[in-house]
Amino acid sequence: MSQPVLSKSSEDYLEAIGHLVRLHGTAQISDIAAFLKVKKPSVTSAVRLLAELKLVEYTQYAPVRLTAKGKKMADRIIHAHETLQKFLHDVAGLSLERSDAAACLIEHVLTPEEIERIGRVTRCLEAHPCMKGELQGEE
């Protein structure tokens, strides 16, 4: 069964739910709203859509829970974000804040295979620090 194609916004909600579940075991609507800096009604609408797609389980006043399919997608999005942020910060030399913002934009357009290639480049450069320094303009 193929995974549904999500909008950038839906992926952001799924990613936020994934982070909150990792941190707290559950994700409340109010916590998701605070995490994404959006209003609770926006979260409720997005969560209902994710529930229709069978990515989360949601009932009013209860925590949002990831389904197995939702967890798999959330983990993929989080992995992509972390891989890109690490590359942009550690290899390209961007600040943590800028690398986080850029990773959030890029994670939605690259395939898992492309993310894996970027991860391999990052790991290779970690193993060969002199090459990393040259890329960042250090001597």
UniProtKB/TrEMBL annotation:
- PROSITE patterns to which the protein is assigned, alphabetical: HTH_DTXR
InterPro entries reported in the protein's UniProt record: DtxR_MntR_Metal-Reg, Fe_dep_repressor, Fe_dep_repressor_sf, HTH_DTXR, Iron_dep_repressor, WH-like_DNA-bd_sf, WH_DNA-bd_sf
Domain HTH dtxR-type positions: 1-67
Sorted alphabetically, the keyword list is: DNA-binding, Transcription, Transcription regulation
Q: PANTHER family, from UniProt?
A: IRON (METAL) DEPENDENT REPRESSOR, DTXR FAMILY (PTHR33238), IRON-DEPENDENT TRANSCRIPTIONAL REGULATOR (PTHR33238:SF7)
- State any single GO MF term: DNA binding
Which family does the record assign?
Belongs to the DtxR/MntR family.
Signal peptide feature range: none
Gene3D superfamilies in UniProt: Iron dependent repressor, metal binding and dimerisation domain (1.10.60.10), Winged helix-like DNA-binding domain superfamily/Winged helix DNA-binding domain (1.10.10.10)
What is this protein's name? Transcriptional regulator MntR
